[in-house]
Design goal:
202 residues, mainly alpha, globular
């Protein structure tokens, strides 16, 4: 079973990397996004569509697949978070015929993801990105990013999102620091072009 294998690998890696790792950190490393193989397959197919060229077709397909995954497992927070991101990026890329309802659905997905996965750094990062676009109060957005980076300070995606949010909150120095950290953590990040543009604007 793929999830049992992931459990074994997570625990083995945790014990080798840091003997003093806490029990809670081991549990977090071994936590699976869903116990449904079918939901996980839909999620993987959704991420493939999501990482295409962000055309209207690819983002629409991604959102539909993420929605199906979340329907099979309503607690699948990562699928809901990516559905929210697919929708908000559809709006931002100018693909929405009627942006407001799509933004509302995106925010609903993000809030559902937070309810189901408030201790997942990637969920927090994706939700913060979406809700920032939907004009959630800035202190709430900042809290999500701070929690995400506290949970997983080594996740490049969290620092990229922090850079983006700081940039558009007119906090240039903080944006630069976050962007630089994102690149240090993952020099080949798929967000590299966006980071370089953001750095130039900060």
């Amino acid at each position: 079973d793929i999830f049992e294998l992931q459990d074994s690998v997570s625990n083995a890696v945790a014990s080798e990397i840091e003997p003093s790792i806490t029990a809670s950190e081991v549990r977090r490393a071994a936590t699976q996004p869903t116990r449904s193989n079918s939901a996980y397959d839909l999620y993987l197919r959704g991420t493939r569509a999501y990482w295409e060229l962000w055309t209207k077709d690819s983002l629409t397909r991604a959102e539909a697949l993420f929605e199906q995954a979340a329907t099979l497992d309503p607690d699948f927070a990562l699928a809901q978070a990516y559905a929210s991101s697919a929708l908000i990026n559809c709006v931002l890329q100018g693909h929405a015929d009627d942006p407001l309802p799509m933004m509302q659905r995106s925010a609903e997905y993000a809030r559902a993801a937070l309810r189901a996965g408030s201790h997942d750094a990637e969920v927090l990062s994706l939700a913060a990105y979406t809700l920032f676009q939907c004009e959630e109060p800035q202190p709430a957005i900042d809290e999500m990013i701070e929690r995400a980076m506290a949970i997983n300070p080594g996740m490049s995606r969290c620092h990229y999102t922090a850079g983006f949010i700081n940039l558009y909150a007119c906090r240039g120095e903080a944006a630069l620091a976050a962007y630089d950290m994102a690149l240090r953590l993952d020099p080949r990040t798929p967000w590299r072009d966006a980071i370089m543009i953001g750095r130039a604007q900060a």
